[in-house]
Amino acid sequence: MGKVRLEIWPWLSHHENATGFRRLVLEEEARDGESLRGFLNRMAEKHRVFGEVIFDRQAQELSRQVTVIYNERLLELAGGLDAPLRDGDSLSFVPAFAGGAAPVPTTES
pTM above 0.90? Predict the structure, then answer.
């Protein structure tokens, strides 16, 4: 077994009763050979924010409201939910960003 560091950004941390508007940092045990999917299932049982906002246990998928950074890489680029967890890994849960660039103003002559 090893330890995994979790960082939950302020927009989610209030669900875990963090005092004030600040990020929440947790350290959790990862089981030998456990995938991120298995880990998130356990976290959804243990921490209300995971089950309500981050990971849908029935659908076995991440919420569209969250982006996961796995060891400083987007989760999708690091193996997705089937990526194995190891001692010392870190996971950051940040708000998903959407949208595009604002229109560029034009000048008419």
Answer: no
In the block, which residue shows the tokens 């299932």?
Answer: 41
Please state, in angstroms and rounded to a whole number, the distance separating the CA atoms of residues 71 and 30.
Answer: 15
DSSP string, 19-80: SSS--EEEEEEE-TT-BHHHHHHHHHHH-HHIIIIIEETTTTEE-TTEEEEETTEEGGGGTG
- Are 7 and 89 in contact by the 8 Å Cβ rule? The answer is no
Q: Which domain holds residue 79?
A: 2-95
CATH number at residue 22: 3.10.20.30
Each residue's pLDDT tens digit, 16-49: 554 555 778 889 999 988 999 999 999 999 887 7
Domain membership of residue 90 (yes or no) is yes
Q: Is residue 87 very low, low, confident or very high in pLDDT (cuts 50, 70, 90)?
A: very high
At 108, list the tokens. 């008419």
Nearest-angstrom CA–CA distance, 21 and 89: 25
